[in-house]
């Protein structure tokens, strides 16, 4: 697993920034993606992929312990669709 701190450290090393500056850049990117998702907008990062907000409808489900039917409320979810370049890199 890669953490935000590891990404920030790599960014700082490769671009001559301090670790604090690298962490600030990573957090700013994540904040921008989050703000776009909250607004219902898609974020496209060419060569990496797209973050999209999708609506999930209300549905019925079962409680596995009791077998009782319950309603699961409608919600929004954030999905990620990888770009072709990323898929190709993963499947070399």
Automatic annotation (TrEMBL):
Keywords: DNA condensation, DNA-binding
Domain of life of the native organism: Bacteria
The keyword DNA-binding belongs to this UniProt entry's keyword annotation: yes
GO terms for MF: DNA binding; structural constituent of chromatin
Classification via SMART domains: BHL (SM00411)
GO biological process: chromosome condensation
Keyword set includes DNA-binding: yes
Family assignment from sequence similarity: Belongs to the bacterial histone-like protein family.
Protein name in UniProt: HU family DNA-binding protein
């Amino acid at each position: 697993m890669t953490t935000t701190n590891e990404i920030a450290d790599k960014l700082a090393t490769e671009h001559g920034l301090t670790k604090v500056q690298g962490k600030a850049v990573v957090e700013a990117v994540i904040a921008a993606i989050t703000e776009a998702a909250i607004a219902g907008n898609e974020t496209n990062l060419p060569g990496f992929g797209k973050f999209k907000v999708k609506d999930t409808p209300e549905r019925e489900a079962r409680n596995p312990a009791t077998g009782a039917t319950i309603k699961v409320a409608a919600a929004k979810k954030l999905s990620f669709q990888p770009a072709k370049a990323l898929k190709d890199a993963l499947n070399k």
